[in-house]
């Protein structure tokens, strides 16, 4: 069973305080917890692991296991006054979250922030640091030696990962197996052409309208059965598709693991339950989207506990109906789609490329070494923001949590992988 420990504030908890429980300590849970800190409530965060791993670095860490520690914080670091319980939530009974070891965590308001279920690219629920480190090391070493790599899933993660594999293993055969008719099927014709061209240049093959009939990764030679009945050889098989969202344990989720919510991001059937990053309002797991949901839920949970009116969730980026950017590897190529950004930001990306970068903003920052403001981050003036300059800018987020201010590079027990 899960090991449970509690890190409390230096002040005794006031039993009269309303109890807010947040299940999940990834981006959604951490943003929400920090938004509620200092508001005069008894707040508990339930995390299935004792460490935090930055999800954005997932594909890079798998191909650069020696740098996994850079994407990890050795503890769930939250403001004083917030309790942290290490354990795995398995059910919800009345107003209690039940953990795997049988412990019950009572709540007056519950926030589900369990995010996407994406094994291997993120730690498994309850996975220890030693097991996580061993897994990433074994997979990373195998990828560098493999002569044939099969990637299951042609979404954002699968395409980014294919580029990362190519960077560390220039000679291996790489095949992306897609259930749709192509990789990144949501792209318009212009970006489909960009993707096809880059995958061709990198000698990455796409096998459309197929599924690998396995869900677990494999780093040994294997014949994979496809949905068509054909067999496909691989030295390494890496599934890069999600298993849905992780709220199924609540008994409130739909078939994809999302919590059905109203316009307040409040569960439709259980009004004391709210959701961030895993509700039916969650379009995709972009940081700006999650930040907006967290802000709304923080305000509405506090209002709910006071019997005050709740406010509707307003999407902070309504123009973004698909991922704003796409990386192919972390040193090869990337683009930002200006059409997914709000008007001023989209215009800036499209028209302020080299050499038309704002004279008193981008150029001074670029000369001072701020990589995200290199003159080519937005590409060339009046053209699409893409290429290695754009890649360098996006790479700034690889081991940087931005406004979340989580100190990474502090992996448990040791600072650097051997």
Q: For the report, how would you describe the main beta sheet?
A: 6 strands, mixed
What characteristic shape results from the CA principal axes? globular
Strand order of the largest sheet: 1-6-3-2-10-17
Helical run tally: 9
Radius of gyration: 22 Å
What is the helix/strand order?
A: EEHEEHEEEEEEHEHEHEEEEEHEEHHH
| Number of beta-strand segments | 19
> Which range does the strand content fall in?
15-25%
**How helical, in percent, are the residues?**
10-25%
Distance between the termini: 29 Å
Poorly predicted runs: 1-13, 414-418
- Determine the mean pLDDT: 88
What structural class do the secondary elements suggest? alpha/beta
Features:
four-stranded parallel β-sheet; disordered C terminus; single chain; 418 residues; alpha/beta
Write up this protein.
24% of the residues lie in helices and 18% in strands. It has 9 helices and 19 strands. A 6-stranded mixed β-sheet has the order 1-6-3-2-10-17, with helices on one face. Helix 1 (27-36) packs across helix 6. The protein is globular and about 65 Å long.
Summarize the structure.
The protein is α/β, with parallel strands linked by helices and 418 residues long. The chain has helices at 27-36, 58-63, 129-145, 156-168, 189-201, 287-305, 343-351, 362-367, 388-395, and strands at 6-7, 19-23, 42-47, 52-53, 72-73, 82-86, 89-93, 96-99, 104-106, 109-112, 148-152, 173-177, 204-207, 222-225, 231-234, 236-239, 273-275, 325-328, 333-336.
